[in-house]
Specification:
Belongs to the cyanase family. Keywords: Lyase. One of its GO terms (molecular function) is cyanate hydratase activity. By secondary structure, the chain is of the alpha+beta class. It folds into two domains: about 60 residues, 434 Repressor (Amino-terminal Domain); about 60 residues, Cyanate Lyase, Chain: A, domain 2, CATH 3.30.1160. The protein is about 50% helix and about 20% strand. It has a two-stranded antiparallel ribbon with strand order 1-2. A hairpin with a 6-residue loop joins strand 1 and strand 2.
């Protein structure tokens, strides 16, 4: 029996097919009618896809059933430590290290004792034109979970 393809290998197949076909992540997300950031994360191995989503994206990208099978697996979430040295990803970590304590205080000030869920969660991405250079707009939208004693 052939082992199931790893999610990282499936992600490499998806990324290669996307580049070779000249497709944006937005176009792929539209094809499977799913949110842009979620779709991109799923195709990079961070979320399981439904059978229908996996088969549809593989048909669209002309990828085989082995990739579709892998895209349906439960992931091991998180980034490889080597990925954290990428300048774009590092800047996200830097922004949270600088503004995280202030955001924590503001969450507690506004909502009380609790946390923002990263499970009941949405994230959105947009580009906003600005005379000084276009702006990257990222929105985290998580359910507030209060601590109950």
């Amino acid at each position: 029996m052939t082992p199931i393809m790893s999610k990282s290998e499936a992600a490499r197949h998806v990324a290669s097919a996307r580049v070779r076909r000249g497709l944006s992540w937005a176009r792929i997300a539209a094809e499977i009618d799913a949110p842009l950031v979620w779709t991109t994360a799923a195709l990079l191995g961070q979320h399981p896809m439904t059978r229908e989503q996996a088969e549809r994206v593989c048909d669209f990208l002309d990828l085989d059933a082995a990739v579709a099978e892998s895209l349906q697996l439960q992931p091991t979430r998180g980034a490889d430590p080597a990925v954290l040295s990428d300048p774009t990803i590092y800047r996200f970590a830097e922004a949270l290290s600088v503004y995280g304590p202030a955001l924590k205080e503001l969450v507690h000030d506004e909502f009380g004792d609790g946390i923002m869920s990263a499970i009941n969660f949405r994230v959105d991405f947009a580009r906003r034109p600005d005379p000084d250079g276009d702006r990257v707009v990222i929105t985290f939208d998580g359910k507030f979970l209060d601590y109950r004693w």
